[in-house]
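Re-run requested by the PI after the first attempt was lost when the workstation crashed. Everything re-entered from the original request form. Ligand of interest: S-adenosylmethionine.
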Amino acid sequence: MAPNTQPVLANNTAPIEAKDSSHDSGVEDIESTVSSTQSLTDSIREHVYENGRRYHRKSQGKYALPSDETEQDRLDLSHAYYLEMLDGKLSLAAFNKDPANVLDCGTGTGIWALEFGDEHPGSKVVGIDLAPIQPDWVAPNVYFELDDLEKEWTFPEDHFDYIHSRNVGAGIKNWERYLRQMYKHCKPGGYVELSEHSYHNLYCDDGSMSDDSPFLLYIRTVSQSLEKMGMNPNLVLSDYKRLLADAGFVDIEAHNFKCPVGPWPREKKQRRLGAILGEISRTGFEAYGKAVMTNYGSLTEEQATEMIKECVKLVDKGTQHMYGQQWCLVARKPE
Ligand SMILES: C[S@@+](CC[C@H](N)C(=O)[O-])C[C@H]1O[C@@H](n2cnc3c(N)ncnc32)[C@H](O)[C@@H]1O
């Protein structure tokens, strides 16, 4: 197993050029789910309804995004987005043979775990999440468990050949401990892969995003609210790299992807990715912002709704060439 060093995945730091008109669309042995801690009983199906969205009770205080059908659709579309971003690859780590034991942290709808299991029939994939939003019927090599990744992991030590963690930043308060647990339960010679985006800033290369942009107002308010909740919205690529090294991982490969929101870029692939992310952002602004800004920040529901509406409108308008960043890191536990 070795990191994939295909040139197509090289770091992307060049400015993104906008096309002339931004109005046309660019789119074209951990056994089964049944155990005492994970059975899908009524008690763990409990929900909390707030501002028109459904949240899972077990996520309260731990993760402020909803878990309803709208959010599940957003997660599945986001998965399609990341596949497109990585040119069809589910991971940046490349494997000579199927990694025997695989863990997907914060698996969400389980779509990554299911596809990885499908592509790697020799792997046994376990997906962990706080919320029971995974399908009940799955391939025989894919298992889902409900648990909090911030608690002590009960897996055997030196167990996993590959640990995957994508976009769990809004649910991890103690990154040092999280990565120490990954290290402890990763096999010597095994790989971990992190994929996280910025929760602290939104970017623009051509000056079209004003300092008083609703995008910036939104991300700053979300970031402050997440911080009050106990999260670490300020982490950037170099921090994740340092955290992985501090946990003991070596051969750390770090990739930076610029992610335009809306079909405004001139270049075809960026325009298509921007169109998909623009679509994702329609419910994404609310998913990431609504509960945290009203429960941990000082916004009323009306103020949060207004701020989110402004951002969605601005994406549609396409005049402010805003992009986010996705940071992907692959690292190895020494033999
Ligand atoms: C933004 S979603 C990403 C889902 C999936 N990784 C993907 O990329 O499609 C984050 C997921 O992590 C889960 N999560 C957040 N904090 C968690 C924690 N402390 N323990 C377990 N799961 C957590 C949430 O319930 C949610 O399903």
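Saved to the shared folder this time. Residues 1-10, 22-39 have pLDDT under 50 and may be disordered.
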